[in-house]
Amino acid sequence: MKTWFRPAISLFVFIGITVWTAGLILSFPARLAAQLSSGVPASQTAGSAPAAADASYKVVVTILQQKCFACHSSTAKMGGFVMASYQTLMKGGAHGPEILPGNSAKSRLVLMVEGTTQPRMPFNGNPLAPAEIAVIKGWIDAGAKGPSAGEAAALQPHLNIPDIKPRFAEVSPAGSVAFSRDGKTLAVGGYQQVRLLDARTGKVLKSLNGAAGLVRSVAFSPDGKWLAAGGGLCQQWGEIQVWDTQVGKLLRTMRGHKDCIYSVAFSPNGKLLASGSYDKMVKLWDPATGKDLRTLSDHIDAVFAVAFSPDGKWLASGSQDNSVKIWDVATGKRLYTLGDPVDGITCIAFSPSGKQIAAAGYDKLIYIWNLAQTGGTLVQSLIADEDSILQIAWSPDGKEIVTSSADGSIRIRDALTLDPIGIIPHQSDWVDAMSLSPNGKWLAAGRFDGTLSIYRMGSFDQALGPLLAFQGNAPAGNTEPGRTARALGH
């Protein structure tokens, strides 16, 4: 072969490879867009089976559990549509079957997650990704087959949550506090335990151990013999432990919520216990037996606060869905919704007369409504703090309202006008837990950094504290020091 021909061949080969590569590069965006719109991963090569072909019931269940199950569980039943099992999923809801096997284009479930039919689902949540919708459509078009032999039909996928141990000593937050009816004992909820303290000295009287996680709410029964401690494990279950406060014995543990419990409250006669959970549910329990009596399902977001009216006829619930709902305790019927707030509600409190209710939350406002049998009327609202309001309490004499805020303060206001009376500034951390003694003379404040103080109402000076409610926990052999504040009982 002539020597001049070899460079020419190399040149032609080079030009050919360059043109071929350029074609691939120029066509890649279009191919990628087509793959994404169809739900096929970009990394999938030609000739591979599309993602929809792999859309088994198990894969679809995982998507529904993550995005839809909170509103369509066996307790929530939004729109009458329950996804707790394959049978209930295929049964549909108030509009009839939501899934038409073999026809995703006319399946209401698909139309709502796509936004073709309003309201788009998940309601007030992030829309499903195109790839997730493609998987659901592929499963439906393939016949919407149920679980295979040995595969669970219920929407309860395993949560693989790692058990991460701390590297350094750390103190539990004071997640909740409550005075006993006689004001002599203060219960403080922390991580996996509750401590009963002498409210005068701070001495530890009893330690109630064994809670599943952080105890986010505590409540004494009216006679002071029992203590309810609410908490649980995130996205797994809510838990209420009922303790005999006299001997420190665990009487019973109640589970029924699908997520952490943020608030528990005894009815005035002590025969009922209410709970509000991140799973959007409110429940009524028999504290004597642990029986789940009734589920109140009308909120569409986390329930952070529950409270009985002084006469025990009504139950109020405050939610991240920007509302307070009033329920008839005897029937479980929702009487009405107070929908004036513009952001989530974190805390509520009835007036001692039961004729008014106060609520506050993320929008920094205090709201006060007059209550009647058929509805509530907003009579006061005020931007009360510089950051989210975490807790609210109405004084036993009805004259004052106390709030704690993420701005690092505790504020006391006139309940009639909401004019400021006093402030306890410079809190060392968020006051996530707050309780007024039944005689109205003392205010207990538990903070996220684990410290606890008791203040005198009127002068607002500190009568006790700051003290550590719990000893620091550290891994075995770790000598890293914890908090420096004086620990309770030491």
Describe the strand arrangement of the main beta sheet, using strand numbers. 4-5-6-7
What's the level 1 CATH class of the largest domain? Mainly Beta
Mean pLDDT over all positions: 84
CATH homology group of the largest domain: YVTN repeat-like/Quinoprotein amine dehydrogenase
CATH topology of the largest domain: Methylamine Dehydrogenase, Chain H
Q: State the end-to-end distance.
A: 98 Å
Helix/strand structural class: mainly beta
Instruction: Say how many strands there are.
Output: 27
Largest sheet: 4 strands, antiparallel
Q: How many distinct helices?
A: 5
Do you know the CATH architecture of the largest domain?
7 Propeller
Total number of distinct structural domains: 2
**What fraction of residues sit in β-strands?**
35-45%
Give unreliable regions as ranges: 1-53, 476-487
Query: What kind of oligomer do you see?
Result: single chain
Shape field? globular
The helical percent reads 10-25%
Model description:
The chain has 490 residues and is mainly beta. It has two domains: 90 residues, no CATH class; 293 residues, Methylamine Dehydrogenase, Chain H, CATH 2.130.10.10. It has five helices and 27 strands. A four-stranded antiparallel sheet has the order 4-5-6-7, with no helix packed on it. The N terminus is likely disordered.
